[in-house]
Amino acid sequence: MTVGTIQAITDALEVEVLCDTGEKTWEPLNTMKADEPITIAKYVKDKGLVKKQYWTWANNYIKNPKKFLRLCRQEFLAHKRTVPVYIFGV
Length: 90
What we know:
single chain; alpha+beta; 3-stranded antiparallel sheet; 4 helices; flat
């Protein structure tokens, strides 16, 4: 899952999400923050939004670089472990 852009529609923020199937959808930020906080925190760090008022929650993840790197690796491995394994010739 990849985060594309973030847009404000009325009072709610929405995140453009690129799914593994190649489909792009707009999801509410609160939902994405609950499901994928590390991915959203990484996006906030990459875009330099940490100092903005709404994004201060991401500091809990970003403030310690070693811990943030470990969390990113854990998230990557968790997604990798859930992929189905196919064994051919058995």
